[in-house]
Amino acid sequence: MVIPALMQIFLSAPTGNSEEAIRLFKVTYQSKNSTNSAKIEAIHGLSAIPSIRRAKVLGQLLIKAPESHRIEAAKALSKFRGVKGASKIASSALLNRLNSKKLAVQVALIKTLGELRNPYCLKILHNLLNSNKLEVSQAAIIAIALFKNRNSVQILINALKKSEKNVDKDGLERTKTLNFALNSITGQPLVNSNEWSRWWGSMAVRTALNR
Asked: Could you give the angle at the alpha carbon of 117 between the alpha carbons of 47 and 11, nearest 5°?
């Protein structure tokens, strides 16, 4: 049985005391007497005061833990924005073959990359835009929108052109989300790839966004 007072270490331990917080996490998580909810609480406890040492523990869970706990670890890691190395841990887990068939884990990790907003991860997200898994491509599009990076505009327009050719339900959903992302990044209320291409093709527009 987990003693609630022990969980306070995750909230009160300073970054310099990560070793103690990690030790107590392991005691809680590895105990045969811990309930599933206690283990999940311990996972999220690691994000109370983000540090790279705690992020590395979450990184191990993202590869070795049961699927539901990998998802919780991804959610916890999303709070490590600004911690050097956190985005690399998330992206490595996303690309790891052990998560290649775990759709829910992939989506959770893509959302985490969006929350961390490290430009290093943009290329990975761009490569997922045309995934044949709707959940993956949708999560990638929304994550890219969070960066509000002008370097994504042409890539999103290209993906929109391809998506507009698919008139099935998935294609329409992807098209809607791509327009949302472009709207979010640029502030423009355009609705199709032709409009976006004409607008983005203007040198004046590119110059204004680059300021």
From this structure: 15
